[in-house]
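Sat 14:20. Reprocessing the chain from the morning session after the first attempt stalled halfway. Input below, unchanged.
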Amino acid sequence: MIRIDYLEDDPAIAQNVKTYLEMRQMEVSLYPNITGAKQALLQERPDLLLVDRNMPDGTGDDVCRWVRRRWGNALPILYLTVRGETAEIVQGFRDGADDYVVKPFELEVLHSRILALLRRAGQTQETWLSCGNLSLDTEKMAVFREGEEVALSWPEYQIFLLLMENKGRTITRKQLLEQVWDRNGNYVNDNTLTVAMKRLREKLGNPPGLKTIRSFGYRMEEDF
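Finished this time. Tokens:
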């Protein structure tokens, strides 16, 4: 089932859209403010984001830029707003929106635009992994911190990839040694991993979500 997060502070509009889309086999989660929506996004990324341009604790533009820093273009964003001036629409696209629907709108049209966005996003949706302000593009094999690319060595990248692919689960030191070095025929001692992890932390800005499980291993988790 298609999962949609919808940021809307008008409960009547929000419920109307939710009811219609759920009748068409879409799961819609409603968020009346940006803060709650961000916390939910960090826990689980939906297939598409619907965003009202005017929110009580910020703007849709802020949300759009925040999403693009973390997931690049992997999460489709559709604006729903009363702000239909040409300059407003252009600015929305510049901030990273994929489509723009002006209120009032027909629910059938909104549904069609959502399906079109999802079709276009189908090839890139699973290439990004994220945790906090860190993201990893598996297709380009590139790592980003707050949208800025971070240069990692090949072992550092492989360590980070394993941790991101298993976010929320502890990876043992033995598993990391076997996956990163032994698999490639490079047998190293335990201190090599310690040094690599230290350098990785420094390059990533010592992220609080990268946890050390003393004498056992490491784990990536969202940190609030």
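The helical segments are 11-23, 34-43, 60-71, 86-94, 107-121, 154-165, 173-181, 190-203.
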